[in-house]
Amino acid sequence: MNDLALFDLDHTLLPIDSDYEWGQFLVRQGVVDAGEHQRRNDAFFAQYNAGTLDPVEYLEFALGTLARFDPAHLKDLQAQYMRDVIKPAIRPKALDLVRKHQDAGDLVAIITATNAFVTAPIAREFGVEHLIAAKPELDERGHPTGKLAGTPTQGHGKVTHMHAWLDGLGRPFDSFARSWFYSDSHNDIPLLSVVSHPIATNPSEKLSQHAATLGWTSLHLFND
Predict the structure, then answer these.
(1) Mode of pairing for the β-strands spanning 107-115 and 4-7
(2) Strands 144-149 and 179-183: what pairing?
(3) CB of 204 within 8 A of CB of 185?
(4) Cys-Cys with 216: which of 17, 67, 166, 211 at CB 3.0–4.6 Å?
(5) What sign does the dihedral 36-41-47-53 (CA atoms) show?
(6) For residue 193, what are the CA distances in angstroms to 69, 110, 174, 200?
(7) pTM for the whole thing?
(8) Quick one: angle between helices 18-29 and 71-81, nearest 10?
(9) DSSP alpha helices (H): ranges in 104-143?
(10) How far apart are CA 183 and CA 192, in angstroms?
(11) Is 116:95 a contact under the CB 8 Å cutoff?
């Protein structure tokens, strides 16, 4: 591998928030209490945008929803969500950006605060082998229990999880001459501050201001 290229997912490679949209999808399917789920989903989304979200509280809300369904139903919902919501949202410019790094021989990963149940099929759709995401705790059947396994992949947690992943591959971070991280969110400033090439991608207002102050590159994928 030549260099390292890391991508946030929601509002970075996707023009939507896959976690929030999964909740909305469940509401539309009529498989969760619409009023209560909508209220909590909206409240957590507002907290995320404000930088006040308790990641464990949110993740266990989302993972608790997964635990309600039997495995076959959950698999069917996941496939329908990919077909109806995610695939139509994937833009060629985002695919091209990922492929540019893959074609250069870079080690590519998606690193996201969203749980792996929602994001693993999305990473596969982008052709990305490596996914660093919040892990659902699984029971002996491999079914989500509703709890988080390990620690959140958010904020400084992304830095910690990145180092653990790379050390597991035998490629410590300092072995890469160049590293990129593409993100839209001010919540990702810790990891953006670590890489050699921080790219504020479709940045929020807070990240845009921070990037401008530090002279970071800004990239807008979804202006078409």
Answers:
(1) parallel
(2) unpaired
(3) yes
(4) 211
(5) positive
(6) 40, 17, 14, 11
(7) 0.93
(8) 110
(9) 116-125
(10) 8
(11) no
Number of C-beta neighbours around residue 97 at 10 A: 22
Q: Are 180 and 197 in contact (CB under 8 A)?
A: yes
Residues annotated as catalytic are 8, 10
Angle between helices 55-67 and 34-50 (to 10 degrees): 150
The C-alpha angle 147, 149, 154, rounded to 5 degrees, equals: 100
